[in-house]
Amino acid sequence: MMDPMQMSRQVVDFNKRAFGSSFSAACMMQDNMMKAMDAFMNQSPLYPAEAKNHMAYWMKACTDCRDKFKMAMDDNFAKVESWFNGHGGEKTAK
Q1: Residue 93 and residue 70: Cα distance in Å, rounded?
Q2: Which pLDDT value is given to residue 88?
Q3: CB 4 within 8 A of CB 88
């Protein structure tokens, strides 16, 4: 029978890898959409410079929040891993 601590570590490791790959895919999609929107805004004569500045600000805000979210998730995964490292050697009494 598998040790519950080992099984928990595997679950956290799986979640960390799943988050990393899905977050990376979402970032690529967001970056491509921002490039497309930027190209559209710059090539279209319909939008004034003020609107273009607002869109650039909004895209930067989205990128900054995305980076903060990634840092928070990385910090939390590191906390969980450090908890496992601190409690990994302990065995519960049967």
Answers
A1: 38
A2: 58
A3: no
Residues ≥6 apart with Cβ < 8 Å to 73: 19, 23
DSSP 88: T
**92 CB neighbour count, 10 Å cutoff:** 7
**Residue 45 vs residues 4, 39, 52, 57, 91: alpha-carbon distances, Å:** 62, 12, 11, 19, 69
Position 79, amino acid = K
- Contact 63/32 with Cβ under 8 angstroms? no
pLDDT tens digits along 57-86: 999 999 999 999 999 999 999 999 999 888
Residue 26's SS3 state is: helix
